[in-house]
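Batch manifest, entry 17 of 40.
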Amino acid sequence: MKINYGVKIAPPTIEIARAFGSNVEPVPLKGGQNTSYIAGDIVLKPAGGKSGTEWRAQVFSSLPESREVRFHRPIKSIHSDWMYEGYVAWNFLKGEHVKGQYDKKLKASRAFHELLKGVPQPEGLKTPKGMWSIGNWVALGQKEFDYDQEFMDLYNQIKPHLKPLPEDRQLVHGDMFQNFLLDENLPPALIDFSGVWAPNGFAEGIMLADAIVWGNATPEELEVFKQVSNIEQMAWRGALTRIAEQAESIKWFGKEKDEAVQEARNYQRVFDYLNKNF
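Output type: structure tokens
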């Protein structure tokens, strides 16, 4: 589960909202990790790098509509650009963060990833460029797991379970657990896209691991994940992703080692579940 370690920028002004077609003063969006703002029917977020922002906007502006899943659509500014004064705008999606209901969430995930199948690998995902992408590369066997002994002790429990992965890769959402919005009258919405180039099912593997650690999901709630092809392997690698991220957080963000180790050790619960249920 991601924590916002990003660089802080000034909150968006009414002028920025107007540039994207809203006359409503932006206010912090609940659950937006202190970086998202709502202004009427649009959501404003820090843009990040220009190339990545434009790629993301082009992808999500071109995806077809689905009756099974909702996702944000980007909004161009009055200057016909996707970015303005360091911000991007997306349409607001109705819904609430709801615990559990993994059957609905997995159905939406399948539909979402089916839409993404034709998207080619972007340049930005061809090399690891930060803590989270390095974690993914380690989990997918593209980078060696080489960290302090406390992390190696966890890795050594995972290593015997690692098997060759399918060669086919596609764009997937690498941080789904807390990024579903549910509404009783609408399909589930999947937000805050975190792109990973990975085998299909990797996203659900990470989600399963996070559901155990952060959602305290019961084995009964997790039964539905067994419908996902190769889910055991993907869940081992999902746990490995999170452990590598914690090891990397020490270097990237100056996180205290003891804290990083403790958060990584939380994923022992995933090991226990997988060993007992597969």
